[in-house]
Amino acid sequence: MVVKFIESTYDSVKDKLKNPFYGTLFIVWVIRNREFIFNVFFNENVNSDKRLEIIRSHFLSWDSLLSFIGTIFISLGLMVLIYFSLNLSRLIVELSERVLKPRIQKIFSETSIVSREEYQTVINQRDHYIKRFNEENQEKLRLQEELDTKGVTKQNIDGQTSENLDTPNKIDIIFFQDWDDNLQFSFKKLIAEVNNHHSAGEVEEKVGDEYVEEFRGRDLIEIYYDGGVPYYKFTPLGIAVKDFFNKNNIRAL
């Protein structure tokens, strides 16, 4: 029974000391009352009666109560100082890791480190071109159905050579009957940009987004990737139209 009581008391005291406040309070109290502790437990020149008198005078006086209240306030102030120091050190660590370190690495490793904004821009561009690539495949199916209804297939056009494109045929009837001067001029620029192996972004900037979309809608160009960079290339249908366009210098009908 006594052993269980002692163990329970010991565990309770140990748990209390693990609490930051009680642990700090205990340490501050020991430091402020070191003389009292020495006389009660370690001073061999003090007999038992004297020890009892020291204990009685220490705990039953108003000065002892005021001293204990002061110990509480000192403990609270010390805890505030400790936690402020911990958070200040954490602030310094976070500032170093998230602000200073990336800037230093960017100075010495510009080719291997990019900012979050640049990374997000590249991701957005990639998603944009993937979406357009999927839309292009759907548009191809639609255009093929349209060609089939007019009696022209991609195989028919792909099989034609520059020798048999000297006179107007099904290509100019289908593709050039609604081409105005601006569209023809843009197609000329498109041929030059694609032949010079410029990126998709440069082609769209030089030719114009609306015209690039128009040519993609007609299944004349498509996107492909080289080293992760998007480019445009002529489809088999686009190659036939390009050759016919260059050979005959097509004008709006």
TrEMBL record:
Membrane-traversing stretches: 65-86
Which keywords appear in this protein's UniProt record, sorted alphabetically? Membrane, Transmembrane, Transmembrane helix
The name of this protein is Uncharacterized protein
Organism ancestry: Bacteria, Pseudomonadati, Bacteroidota, Flavobacteriia, Flavobacteriales
